[in-house]
Every structure is written in C-alpha cells, then in structure tokens.
Amino acid sequence: MTVRTVPVVLVAGHLGVGKSSLVNHLLRHADGTRIGVVVNDFGALGIDAMLVAGQASSVTALSNGCLCCVTDADGLSAVLADLVAPATGLDLVVVEASGLAEPRELVRLLLASSDPHAVYGGLVAVLDACAPDLDHARLADLAVVNGLDRCGPAAVEAVRAVAPGAVVGTSHGALDPALLVDPVRRPQPAQLTLDALLREADGEHPHVAASSVSFASERPLDAGRLAAFLESGPAGVVRMKGIVRLPVGASGATGEDEERGGGVLIETPDVWEVQTVGTAIRVRPAPGRLTTRGARLVLIGTDLDEPALRAALEDCAVREDEPAPSEHAALALTRYRIDLTSA
C-alpha cells in the first residue's frame, strides 16, 4: 500500500529579504491547497491579525484550511510529525527557518527523519535582489530573488550563474504556489474567507504565473541520463512530476522481483513516480494505476525553453542500439527513493 507523503519545504534567508511575505502569499493564494506553516512566532508573519483564528501556543487553524504552528528547533520533529499525519489532510508543509536553526541543520534533520509521511521538499533560499547572498544561492534547491520591483531583474542572472537549482525572480514575495505543490481543488465556502477578504483589502501582488511543458516518450528512459538531467537544474524548471519506465534489467529485476534493503522487503519495479523541486529529487514506485511504456512528465517553471527541454529529455530515452543496462544502472535515479520505511 502506498503511504501518503507530504513534502516539507524549508524557507531560509536573511532578515528582511521577504520570507514572511512569501509565506503569506502562499497562504493567501492557497485556493483549496492545505498548507502547514511552522514559525517561531506569529508576529513574524502578517497572518496573526486576521488569518489566525485566535492565538495558540502550538497549533492554530487558519481560515483557509491551513495550519500554523509555533515551535523552536528542539520541537520541530514533534510538530512535523503532527502536521504530516494523514488525519490533518495537509498538502504541503512550509518551515520558515529564521530563528529555528541553520538551513543546513534543518535539511539534515529532514533527510534523517524516519517519519514515513514526511519527505524533504527542498530548500528555498529567499535572496534580496539588491544584494543577493550568493552563498545562500549555492545551497538552495530553489533560489527566489525577491525585490525586482526595487532593483530590477539583473540580480536574477547573477544568482543563476552560481545556483545549482532553479532561480525565480519575485516582487513582494509573490511566488506562485504551483511552483511548490499541485493546486488542490476543494469546495469553496459560500462566503469569502478571512484570507480572501484580506487579499482584497491589501490588494494583489500578482505573481509571475507558472508555465508548463509536457513530455511523452514511448521508450524507457536511461536512469543515468535522466538523473543527470534532474541534478543539473535545467533552466527555468522549478518542478517536475510524472512517471518513468526504466529499461528491464536496469535494477536487476523484472518488475516482479523483490530485494531486501535495511531489513525491509522492497519491491523493485520498472515504473517510477518522479517529483522534483529544483534539485531536490524524490522517486518512488509508481502506484499500480499509473503505468507507461516510456515516460509521461510535466515540467513546471518560468521562461521555459520548450524545444531545449524536449530535446534534453529525448536524449534520455533508451536507443535501440544501446547495450542492455547493468543490474545496478537504476541506482543513479532510485537512490532518491523515499519509500524505504514502512508505515
């Protein structure tokens, strides 16, 4: 049985770069997507005046179905366990890293987590467009260059030159939520929620809308070439999702075999679900209802070069004249597997 997982995204950056604006924008534009937010104090976010339905010492429900938690670094693991539990129904958890711990330590904490419901969703570094911290950019899976309304777009290219992952420019922290998580359509209430009223009162900070490129192949993809493509942080791509078939034998299995890993019995299939945010990659066996002869992928981002992306993915497809893959060939991709812990 597939375990429901929730991506946990870390948002880091210096004081005043726009982290809180980014988190507020995500909440106000959730539109049915349920987001959990972990902060040190409500005062750091503009949500406490109208969005928070009463102050609480730990967990507060927001009017749009989201949750906000207050904790310190020592309490982070416990709070995350509560938030990603299936009963909450959350689609995304955002940890605002300021004051909690160094971003590197939070990344290590998440990667070391044994909670089967929490998966590392990437490190988002928010940078000041007028003086971007390039060291932070080098750590990021996704670098958000904020303040283009004040300083112009030149900083985006400077950051792109050093950042290993995706780079997006914003004003007022207005990052399109679709760049982090799929929008979830849920029934809307008959009257405006408090967050919708606040959005109307404050006025919109419109975000640069995400665009997408779809790719389909009838041939399996080579695990090594696909992994190299994902790890390279292809230009403009912030997220990728879909399913991929690897060549039979690439994992030393026929799709029906099983192997033991870490004391847990693990299937070794040929078809894999792939999800990325920047250079944060996660894969798992595709649910039984999803299958493909080759690949079905959607790339999401901004200013996408569709012909170049399609050509790069076509190059990942296995050619007829290629030798059979080695039994360990799939490890280039499956080392990012997230479902090795049983629920």
Automatic annotation (TrEMBL):
GO terms under cellular component: cytoplasm
Keywords recorded for this protein, A-Z: Chaperone, Hydrolase, Nucleotide-binding
Catalytic reaction equation(s): GTP + H2O = GDP + phosphate + H(+)
UniProt xrefs under InterPro entries: CobW-likC_sf, CobW-like_C, CobW/HypB/UreG_nucleotide-bd, P-loop_NTPase, Zinc-reg_GTPase_activator
Domain CobW C-terminal: 210-317
Domain of life: Bacteria
GO MF: hydrolase activity; nucleotide binding
PANTHER family per record: COBW DOMAIN-CONTAINING PROTEIN, COBW-RELATED
Family: Belongs to the SIMIBI class G3E GTPase family. ZNG1 subfamily.
Protein name per its UniProtKB record: G3E family GTPase
